[in-house]
Protein backbone atom coordinates (compact mmCIF):
# COMPACT_ATOMS: atom_id res chain seq x y z
CA UNK A 1 0.00 0.00 0.00
CA UNK A 2 1.25 3.46 -0.91
CA UNK A 3 0.21 6.34 1.33
CA UNK A 4 0.49 9.89 -0.05
CA UNK A 5 -0.09 13.01 2.03
CA UNK A 6 -1.33 16.15 0.30
CA UNK A 7 -2.22 19.47 1.79
CA UNK A 8 -5.89 20.45 1.88
CA UNK A 9 -6.92 22.33 -1.27
CA UNK A 10 -10.05 23.21 -3.21
CA UNK A 11 -11.75 20.65 -5.34
CA UNK A 12 -9.65 21.60 -8.32
CA UNK A 13 -6.46 20.53 -6.57
CA UNK A 14 -7.39 16.86 -5.99
CA UNK A 15 -5.79 14.56 -8.53
CA UNK A 16 -7.46 11.32 -9.47
CA UNK A 17 -5.87 8.24 -10.92
CA UNK A 18 -8.02 7.41 -13.88
CA UNK A 19 -6.97 6.59 -17.43
CA UNK A 20 -7.06 9.48 -19.88
CA UNK A 21 -5.25 9.97 -23.15
CA UNK A 22 -3.96 13.05 -24.92
CA UNK A 23 -3.72 12.89 -28.70
CA UNK A 24 -0.98 15.29 -29.80
CA UNK A 25 -0.98 17.29 -32.99
CA UNK A 26 1.64 14.97 -34.50
CA UNK A 27 -0.67 11.97 -33.98
CA UNK A 28 1.13 10.56 -30.92
CA UNK A 29 -1.13 9.18 -28.18
CA UNK A 30 0.12 9.89 -24.62
CA UNK A 31 -1.53 8.06 -21.68
CA UNK A 32 -2.33 10.25 -18.63
CA UNK A 33 -2.51 8.63 -15.20
CA UNK A 34 -3.16 11.59 -12.92
CA UNK A 35 -5.37 14.56 -13.61
CA UNK A 36 -7.76 17.00 -12.04
CA UNK A 37 -10.17 19.66 -13.17
CA UNK A 38 -7.22 22.04 -13.21
CA UNK A 39 -4.89 20.10 -15.47
CA UNK A 40 -2.90 16.98 -16.32
CA UNK A 41 0.24 15.45 -14.78
CA UNK A 42 2.74 15.07 -17.63
CA UNK A 43 4.70 11.79 -17.66
CA UNK A 44 8.33 12.05 -16.57
CA UNK A 45 9.62 10.04 -19.49
CA UNK A 46 8.39 12.59 -21.98
CA UNK A 47 10.37 15.80 -22.18
CA UNK A 48 8.52 18.14 -24.57
CA UNK A 49 5.26 19.42 -23.10
CA UNK A 50 2.52 20.26 -25.65
CA UNK A 51 0.31 23.35 -25.69
CA UNK A 52 -2.76 21.71 -27.27
CA UNK A 53 -4.21 18.34 -28.05
CA UNK A 54 -7.30 16.16 -28.17
CA UNK A 55 -8.31 14.93 -24.67
CA UNK A 56 -9.90 11.46 -24.81
CA UNK A 57 -11.85 9.80 -21.97
CA UNK A 58 -12.25 5.99 -22.34
CA UNK A 59 -15.68 5.39 -20.87
CA UNK A 60 -17.23 1.92 -21.03
CA UNK A 61 -15.78 1.00 -24.43
CA UNK A 62 -16.26 4.37 -26.17
CA UNK A 63 -14.01 7.38 -26.51
CA UNK A 64 -15.29 10.78 -25.38
CA UNK A 65 -12.97 13.41 -26.83
CA UNK A 66 -12.75 17.16 -27.20
CA UNK A 67 -9.92 19.57 -28.04
CA UNK A 68 -8.13 21.35 -25.20
CA UNK A 69 -5.60 24.17 -24.91
CA UNK A 70 -2.83 23.62 -22.38
CA UNK A 71 -0.39 25.76 -20.44
CA UNK A 72 2.81 23.81 -19.64
CA UNK A 73 4.62 24.37 -16.30
CA UNK A 74 8.08 22.78 -16.56
CA UNK A 75 9.00 22.86 -12.90
CA UNK A 76 5.83 21.03 -11.87
CA UNK A 77 5.66 18.77 -14.93
CA UNK A 78 2.04 19.83 -15.15
CA UNK A 79 -0.25 20.93 -17.99
CA UNK A 80 -2.96 23.37 -16.97
CA UNK A 81 -6.23 23.63 -18.90
CA UNK A 82 -6.80 26.92 -20.71
CA UNK A 83 -10.17 28.39 -21.72
CA UNK A 84 -12.30 25.29 -21.26
CA UNK A 85 -15.84 25.86 -22.46
CA UNK A 86 -18.76 25.23 -20.17
CA UNK A 87 -19.65 21.95 -21.83
CA UNK A 88 -16.03 20.72 -21.75
CA UNK A 89 -15.67 21.62 -18.09
CA UNK A 90 -18.99 19.96 -17.16
CA UNK A 91 -18.13 16.81 -19.14
CA UNK A 92 -14.80 16.48 -17.40
CA UNK A 93 -16.40 17.25 -14.01
CA UNK A 94 -18.89 14.39 -14.43
CA UNK A 95 -16.07 11.85 -14.55
CA UNK A 96 -14.00 13.68 -11.92
CA UNK A 97 -16.78 13.80 -9.31
CA UNK A 98 -18.00 10.29 -10.12
CA UNK A 99 -14.50 8.83 -9.55
CA UNK A 100 -14.09 10.79 -6.28
CA UNK A 101 -17.52 9.65 -5.08
CA UNK A 102 -16.97 6.03 -6.11
CA UNK A 103 -19.71 5.90 -8.72
CA UNK A 104 -17.07 5.26 -11.36
CA UNK A 105 -13.97 3.08 -11.16
CA UNK A 106 -11.06 2.18 -13.38
CA UNK A 107 -11.25 -1.26 -14.98
CA UNK A 108 -8.80 -2.47 -17.63
CA UNK A 109 -7.66 1.01 -18.52
CA UNK A 110 -11.21 2.32 -18.95
CA UNK A 111 -13.61 4.17 -16.72
CA UNK A 112 -16.64 2.11 -15.82
CA UNK A 113 -19.84 3.38 -14.26
CA UNK A 114 -21.34 1.48 -11.31
CA UNK A 115 -25.06 1.02 -10.74
CA UNK A 116 -25.48 4.55 -9.42
CA UNK A 117 -26.93 6.89 -12.09
CA UNK A 118 -24.53 9.17 -13.87
CA UNK A 119 -25.17 12.92 -13.97
CA UNK A 120 -26.22 14.12 -17.41
CA UNK A 121 -24.13 16.73 -19.13
CA UNK A 122 -26.20 19.90 -19.41
CA UNK A 123 -26.84 20.79 -23.06
CA UNK A 124 -28.10 24.34 -22.63
CA UNK A 125 -25.85 27.20 -23.64
CA UNK A 126 -23.78 28.99 -21.06
CA UNK A 127 -23.82 32.72 -20.61
CA UNK A 128 -20.60 33.07 -22.56
CA UNK A 129 -21.96 31.02 -25.42
CA UNK A 130 -25.17 33.03 -25.47
CA UNK A 131 -23.20 36.25 -25.58
CA UNK A 132 -20.99 34.90 -28.36
CA UNK A 133 -24.04 33.78 -30.36
CA UNK A 134 -25.74 37.17 -30.11
CA UNK A 135 -22.62 39.27 -30.49
CA UNK A 136 -23.22 39.84 -34.25
CA UNK A 137 -27.04 40.09 -34.05
CA UNK A 138 -28.55 43.41 -35.15
CA UNK A 139 -30.36 45.51 -32.54
CA UNK A 140 -34.01 44.76 -31.88
CA UNK A 141 -35.17 48.07 -33.39
CA UNK A 142 -33.40 47.41 -36.67
CA UNK A 143 -34.78 43.88 -36.79
CA UNK A 144 -38.26 45.24 -36.17
CA UNK A 145 -37.89 47.77 -38.99
CA UNK A 146 -36.58 45.08 -41.35
CA UNK A 147 -39.47 42.77 -40.44
CA UNK A 148 -42.08 45.49 -40.99
CA UNK A 149 -40.47 46.43 -44.31
CA UNK A 150 -40.43 42.82 -45.49
CA UNK A 151 -44.10 42.29 -44.58
CA UNK A 152 -45.02 45.59 -46.25
CA UNK A 153 -43.28 44.62 -49.48
CA UNK A 154 -44.91 41.21 -49.40
CA UNK A 155 -48.34 42.79 -48.85
CA UNK A 156 -47.74 45.20 -51.74
CA UNK A 157 -46.74 42.30 -53.98
CA UNK A 158 -49.85 40.33 -53.06
CA UNK A 159 -52.03 43.41 -53.56
CA UNK A 160 -50.41 44.07 -56.95
CA UNK A 161 -50.92 40.51 -58.15
CA UNK A 162 -54.50 40.24 -56.92
CA UNK A 163 -55.37 43.81 -57.93
CA UNK A 164 -53.98 43.44 -61.43
CA UNK A 165 -55.90 40.19 -61.83
CA UNK A 166 -59.15 41.81 -60.70
CA UNK A 167 -58.52 44.81 -62.96
CA UNK A 168 -57.91 42.57 -65.96
CA UNK A 169 -61.15 40.74 -65.29
CA UNK A 170 -63.29 43.88 -65.09
CA UNK A 171 -61.46 46.20 -67.49
CA UNK A 172 -60.36 43.99 -70.39
CA UNK A 173 -61.61 40.98 -72.30
CA UNK A 174 -58.90 38.44 -73.11
CA UNK A 175 -59.27 36.87 -76.54
CA UNK A 176 -57.52 33.49 -76.63
CA UNK A 177 -55.76 31.57 -79.41
CA UNK A 178 -55.10 34.84 -81.25
CA UNK A 179 -52.70 35.07 -84.17
CA UNK A 180 -51.85 37.18 -87.20
CA UNK A 181 -53.69 36.00 -90.31
CA UNK A 182 -53.18 36.78 -93.99
CA UNK A 183 -55.89 36.33 -96.63
CA UNK A 184 -54.29 33.35 -98.39
CA UNK A 185 -56.01 32.04 -101.53
CA UNK A 186 -54.77 28.63 -102.70
CA UNK A 187 -55.04 27.90 -106.43
CA UNK A 188 -55.44 24.27 -107.44
CA UNK A 189 -55.05 22.31 -110.64
CA UNK A 190 -58.53 21.87 -112.11
CA UNK A 191 -57.54 18.87 -114.26
CA UNK A 192 -54.54 16.61 -114.12
CA UNK A 193 -51.64 17.39 -116.42
CA UNK A 194 -47.95 18.17 -116.75
CA UNK A 195 -46.48 21.53 -115.82
CA UNK A 196 -45.03 23.10 -118.95
CA UNK A 197 -43.89 26.40 -117.36
CA UNK A 198 -44.22 28.50 -114.21
CA UNK A 199 -44.20 32.19 -115.19
CA UNK A 200 -44.32 33.51 -111.58
CA UNK A 201 -42.11 33.27 -108.50
CA UNK A 202 -42.62 33.85 -104.79
CA UNK A 203 -43.00 37.57 -104.12
CA UNK A 204 -44.36 38.46 -107.57
CA UNK A 205 -47.49 40.59 -107.68
CA UNK A 206 -50.25 39.35 -109.98
CA UNK A 207 -53.64 40.59 -111.12
CA UNK A 208 -56.80 38.64 -111.82
CA UNK A 209 -56.43 36.54 -114.99
CA UNK A 210 -52.63 36.21 -114.95
CA UNK A 211 -51.41 32.71 -115.78
CA UNK A 212 -49.31 31.42 -112.87
CA UNK A 213 -48.82 27.79 -113.97
CA UNK A 214 -49.20 26.40 -117.48
CA UNK A 215 -50.43 22.80 -117.52
CA UNK A 216 -50.79 20.59 -120.58
CA UNK A 217 -51.88 17.02 -121.34
CA UNK A 218 -50.55 14.81 -124.16
CA UNK A 219 -54.03 14.39 -125.68
CA UNK A 220 -54.79 18.10 -125.75
CA UNK A 221 -51.38 18.93 -127.15
CA UNK A 222 -51.57 16.32 -129.89
CA UNK A 223 -55.15 17.29 -130.83
CA UNK A 224 -54.26 20.95 -130.96
CA UNK A 225 -51.11 20.23 -132.98
CA UNK A 226 -53.12 18.11 -135.42
CA UNK A 227 -55.71 20.85 -135.91
CA UNK A 228 -53.02 23.46 -136.38
CA UNK A 229 -51.30 21.29 -138.98
CA UNK A 230 -54.56 20.77 -140.89
CA UNK A 231 -55.30 24.48 -140.75
CA UNK A 232 -51.83 25.22 -142.07
CA UNK A 233 -52.33 22.79 -144.98
CA UNK A 234 -55.73 24.22 -145.82
CA UNK A 235 -54.37 27.74 -145.72
CA UNK A 236 -51.67 26.73 -148.20
CA UNK A 237 -54.35 25.07 -150.38
CA UNK A 238 -56.49 28.17 -150.20
CA UNK A 239 -53.57 30.34 -151.24
CA UNK A 240 -53.03 28.08 -154.25
CA UNK A 241 -56.71 28.20 -155.17
CA UNK A 242 -56.74 31.96 -154.87
CA UNK A 243 -53.90 32.09 -157.36
CA UNK A 244 -55.78 29.78 -159.76
CA UNK A 245 -58.90 31.88 -159.37
CA UNK A 246 -56.95 35.01 -160.12
CA UNK A 247 -55.47 33.37 -163.21
CA UNK A 248 -58.95 32.35 -164.45
CA UNK A 249 -60.25 35.84 -163.85
CA UNK A 250 -57.31 37.28 -165.78
CA UNK A 251 -58.08 35.00 -168.73
CA UNK A 252 -61.73 36.01 -168.67
CA UNK A 253 -60.78 39.67 -168.51
CA UNK A 254 -58.50 39.20 -171.47
CA UNK A 255 -61.30 37.45 -173.42
CA UNK A 256 -63.76 40.22 -172.57
CA UNK A 257 -61.24 42.84 -173.59
CA UNK A 258 -61.10 41.19 -177.04
CA UNK A 259 -64.91 41.27 -177.29
CA UNK A 260 -65.02 44.89 -176.22
CA UNK A 261 -62.37 45.82 -178.76
CA UNK A 262 -64.32 43.96 -181.47
CA UNK A 263 -67.48 45.84 -180.48
CA UNK A 264 -65.78 49.20 -180.55
CA UNK A 265 -64.19 48.61 -183.95
CA UNK A 266 -67.22 46.82 -185.51
CA UNK A 267 -69.04 48.28 -188.56
CA UNK A 268 -72.64 49.34 -188.02
CA UNK A 269 -74.13 46.17 -189.40
CA UNK A 270 -72.14 44.04 -186.90
CA UNK A 271 -72.69 46.14 -183.79
CA UNK A 272 -75.83 44.26 -182.73
CA UNK A 273 -74.18 40.90 -183.23
CA UNK A 274 -71.05 41.81 -181.37
CA UNK A 275 -73.02 43.42 -178.51
CA UNK A 276 -74.99 40.19 -178.17
CA UNK A 277 -71.72 38.27 -178.04
CA UNK A 278 -70.47 40.61 -175.24
CA UNK A 279 -73.73 40.21 -173.32
CA UNK A 280 -73.52 36.45 -173.61
CA UNK A 281 -69.95 36.59 -172.29
CA UNK A 282 -70.94 38.76 -169.36
CA UNK A 283 -73.89 36.46 -168.67
CA UNK A 284 -71.53 33.49 -168.71
CA UNK A 285 -73.55 31.50 -171.24
CA UNK A 286 -71.42 32.03 -174.33
CA UNK A 287 -70.62 28.49 -175.58
CA UNK A 288 -67.18 29.45 -176.86
CA UNK A 289 -66.01 30.59 -173.44
CA UNK A 290 -67.68 27.81 -171.44
CA UNK A 291 -64.34 26.09 -170.50
CA UNK A 292 -63.17 29.33 -168.89
CA UNK A 293 -66.41 29.60 -167.00
CA UNK A 294 -66.20 25.97 -165.83
CA UNK A 295 -62.59 26.40 -164.66
CA UNK A 296 -63.53 29.50 -162.68
CA UNK A 297 -66.62 27.82 -161.25
CA UNK A 298 -64.58 24.80 -160.16
CA UNK A 299 -61.96 26.94 -158.44
CA UNK A 300 -64.63 28.99 -156.70
CA UNK A 301 -66.42 25.85 -155.46
CA UNK A 302 -63.15 24.43 -154.13
CA UNK A 303 -62.31 27.75 -152.47
CA UNK A 304 -65.71 27.73 -150.78
CA UNK A 305 -65.17 24.17 -149.56
CA UNK A 306 -61.70 25.00 -148.25
CA UNK A 307 -62.99 28.12 -146.48
CA UNK A 308 -65.74 26.07 -144.83
CA UNK A 309 -63.19 23.53 -143.70
CA UNK A 310 -60.95 26.32 -142.40
CA UNK A 311 -63.78 27.86 -140.42
CA UNK A 312 -64.63 24.50 -138.91
CA UNK A 313 -61.01 23.76 -138.03
CA UNK A 314 -60.52 27.24 -136.59
CA UNK A 315 -63.55 26.73 -134.41
CA UNK A 316 -62.10 23.39 -133.36
CA UNK A 317 -58.75 25.05 -132.66
CA UNK A 318 -60.47 27.66 -130.51
CA UNK A 319 -62.32 24.96 -128.61
CA UNK A 320 -59.14 22.99 -128.04
CA UNK A 321 -57.27 26.15 -127.07
CA UNK A 322 -60.00 27.04 -124.55
CA UNK A 323 -59.81 23.51 -123.19
CA UNK A 324 -56.02 23.80 -122.93
CA UNK A 325 -56.30 27.19 -121.25
CA UNK A 326 -58.71 25.68 -118.75
CA UNK A 327 -55.85 23.48 -117.56
CA UNK A 328 -53.73 26.49 -116.60
CA UNK A 329 -53.72 27.86 -113.07
CA UNK A 330 -54.92 31.46 -113.32
CA UNK A 331 -54.95 34.12 -110.60
CA UNK A 332 -58.47 34.62 -109.33
CA UNK A 333 -57.69 38.03 -107.83
CA UNK A 334 -54.94 40.55 -107.41
CA UNK A 335 -52.33 39.63 -104.81
CA UNK A 336 -48.78 38.56 -104.02
CA UNK A 337 -47.50 35.05 -104.70
CA UNK A 338 -46.54 33.45 -101.36
CA UNK A 339 -45.92 29.85 -102.46
CA UNK A 340 -45.25 27.88 -105.66
CA UNK A 341 -45.75 24.17 -105.02
CA UNK A 342 -44.95 22.78 -108.50
CA UNK A 343 -41.97 22.76 -110.87
CA UNK A 344 -41.62 22.40 -114.63
CA UNK A 345 -42.13 18.86 -115.91
CA UNK A 346 -44.00 17.76 -112.80
CA UNK A 347 -47.34 16.02 -113.07
CA UNK A 348 -49.99 18.05 -111.27
CA UNK A 349 -52.91 15.91 -110.16
CA UNK A 350 -56.45 17.19 -110.17
CA UNK A 351 -57.14 19.19 -107.00
CA UNK A 352 -53.46 19.63 -106.13
CA UNK A 353 -52.48 23.05 -104.79
CA UNK A 354 -50.18 24.63 -107.36
CA UNK A 355 -49.72 28.18 -106.04
CA UNK A 356 -50.93 30.36 -103.19
CA UNK A 357 -51.39 34.11 -103.26
CA UNK A 358 -52.05 36.60 -100.52
CA UNK A 359 -54.69 39.22 -101.19
CA UNK A 360 -53.78 42.87 -101.08
CA UNK A 361 -56.02 43.39 -98.06
CA UNK A 362 -54.14 44.18 -94.79
CA UNK A 363 -53.40 41.29 -92.49
CA UNK A 364 -55.54 41.10 -89.36
CA UNK A 365 -55.33 39.54 -85.92
CA UNK A 366 -57.95 36.89 -85.24
CA UNK A 367 -58.76 35.00 -82.05
CA UNK A 368 -61.43 33.01 -80.26
CA UNK A 369 -63.80 34.08 -77.48
CA UNK A 370 -66.28 31.97 -75.54
CA UNK A 371 -69.85 32.49 -76.64
CA UNK A 372 -70.85 33.60 -73.13
CA UNK A 373 -68.82 36.79 -73.74
CA UNK A 374 -70.59 37.66 -76.99
CA UNK A 375 -72.40 40.63 -75.44
CA UNK A 376 -69.13 42.09 -74.13
CA UNK A 377 -67.75 43.00 -77.58
CA UNK A 378 -68.84 45.14 -80.47
CA UNK A 379 -67.22 46.53 -83.61
CA UNK A 380 -64.83 49.40 -83.11
CA UNK A 381 -63.68 48.55 -79.58
CA UNK A 382 -60.02 49.33 -78.85
CA UNK A 383 -57.63 46.37 -78.65
CA UNK A 384 -54.11 46.07 -77.22
CA UNK A 385 -51.96 43.61 -79.19
CA UNK A 386 -48.66 42.24 -77.89
CA UNK A 387 -46.35 40.24 -80.15
CA UNK A 388 -42.81 38.87 -79.94
CA UNK A 389 -40.86 39.64 -83.10
CA UNK A 390 -37.20 39.32 -83.96
CA UNK A 391 -36.60 42.73 -82.39
CA UNK A 392 -38.25 41.77 -79.10
CA UNK A 393 -41.60 42.43 -77.49
CA UNK A 394 -43.82 44.90 -79.33
CA UNK A 395 -47.16 46.46 -78.39
CA UNK A 396 -49.62 47.51 -81.12
CA UNK A 397 -53.02 49.13 -81.15
CA UNK A 398 -56.01 47.83 -83.03
CA UNK A 399 -59.78 47.86 -83.22
CA UNK A 400 -62.41 45.15 -83.54
CA UNK A 401 -63.35 44.89 -87.21
CA UNK A 402 -65.68 41.88 -87.28
CA UNK A 403 -67.25 39.34 -84.93
CA UNK A 404 -68.68 36.10 -86.25
CA UNK A 405 -70.06 33.03 -84.53
CA UNK A 406 -68.83 29.63 -85.55
CA UNK A 407 -66.04 27.09 -85.35
CA UNK A 408 -62.58 27.44 -86.80
CA UNK A 409 -60.74 24.12 -86.33
CA UNK A 410 -57.38 25.86 -86.70
CA UNK A 411 -58.17 28.09 -83.70
CA UNK A 412 -60.57 26.09 -81.50
CA UNK A 413 -62.82 23.08 -81.93
CA UNK A 414 -65.38 24.60 -79.58
CA UNK A 415 -68.22 26.77 -80.84
CA UNK A 416 -67.66 30.42 -79.94
CA UNK A 417 -66.99 33.89 -81.30
CA UNK A 418 -64.29 34.51 -83.92
CA UNK A 419 -62.96 38.03 -83.36
CA UNK A 420 -61.14 39.88 -86.14
CA UNK A 421 -59.01 42.90 -85.25
CA UNK A 422 -57.56 45.40 -87.71
CA UNK A 423 -54.08 46.73 -86.86
CA UNK A 424 -53.76 50.51 -86.61
CA UNK A 425 -50.74 52.63 -87.36
CA UNK A 426 -49.10 50.34 -89.95
CA UNK A 427 -49.39 50.20 -93.72
CA UNK A 428 -50.34 46.86 -95.34
CA UNK A 429 -46.79 46.41 -96.70
CA UNK A 430 -45.32 47.10 -93.25
CA UNK A 431 -47.65 44.57 -91.66
CA UNK A 432 -46.61 41.93 -94.21
CA UNK A 433 -42.93 42.59 -93.57
CA UNK A 434 -43.03 42.84 -89.75
CA UNK A 435 -45.86 40.49 -88.75
CA UNK A 436 -45.57 37.01 -90.32
CA UNK A 437 -48.58 34.87 -91.04
CA UNK A 438 -49.71 32.80 -87.99
CA UNK A 439 -47.56 34.86 -85.58
CA UNK A 440 -49.00 34.31 -82.04
CA UNK A 441 -50.37 37.47 -80.46
CA UNK A 442 -51.77 38.44 -77.07
CA UNK A 443 -55.09 40.20 -77.62
CA UNK A 444 -56.82 42.26 -74.91
CA UNK A 445 -59.98 44.18 -75.76
CA UNK A 446 -60.62 47.23 -73.59
CA UNK A 447 -64.14 47.55 -72.31
CA UNK A 448 -66.08 50.64 -73.34
CA UNK A 449 -65.98 52.36 -69.96
CA UNK A 450 -62.18 52.01 -69.80
CA UNK A 451 -61.81 53.56 -73.25
CA UNK A 452 -64.16 56.40 -72.26
CA UNK A 453 -62.22 57.11 -69.07
CA UNK A 454 -58.93 57.00 -70.95
CA UNK A 455 -60.19 59.46 -73.55
CA UNK A 456 -61.43 61.80 -70.84
CA UNK A 457 -58.12 61.61 -69.02
CA UNK A 458 -56.20 62.34 -72.23
CA UNK A 459 -58.48 65.28 -72.97
CA UNK A 460 -58.01 66.65 -69.47
CA UNK A 461 -54.25 66.19 -69.71
CA UNK A 462 -54.18 67.95 -73.07
CA UNK A 463 -56.22 70.83 -71.66
CA UNK A 464 -53.88 71.18 -68.70
CA UNK A 465 -50.73 71.06 -70.81
CA UNK A 466 -52.20 73.18 -73.61
CA UNK A 467 -52.09 70.38 -76.12
CA UNK A 468 -55.35 71.42 -77.80
CA UNK A 469 -54.37 74.96 -78.77
CA UNK A 470 -50.60 74.85 -78.57
CA UNK A 471 -50.44 77.22 -75.60
CA UNK A 472 -47.61 76.57 -73.16
Question: Which terms summarize this structure?
Answer:
472 residues, alpha+beta, six-stranded antiparallel sheet, six-stranded antiparallel barrel, 8 helices, 22 strands
What does this structure look like?
The structure is a single chain. The chain is of the alpha+beta class and 472 residues long. It is built from eight helices and 22 strands. The protein has helices spanning 86-101, 127-133, 140-171, 218-264, 268-282, 290-327, 428-434, 448-465; strands at residues 16-23, 29-35, 39-41, 52-59, 62-73, 78-82, 104-107, 110-113, 172-181, 184-188, 193-197, 205-206, 211-216, 329-330, 335-340, 347-348, 353-359, 364-370, 382-389, 392-408, 412-423, 442-446. The chain has a six-stranded antiparallel beta sheet. The chain has a six-stranded antiparallel barrel with strand order 9-18-21-20-19-22. Helix 4 packs antiparallel against helix 5 (268-282) and helix 4 packs antiparallel against helix 6 (290-327). The two termini are 116 Å apart. Mean pLDDT is 81; it is low at 7-12 and 468-472.
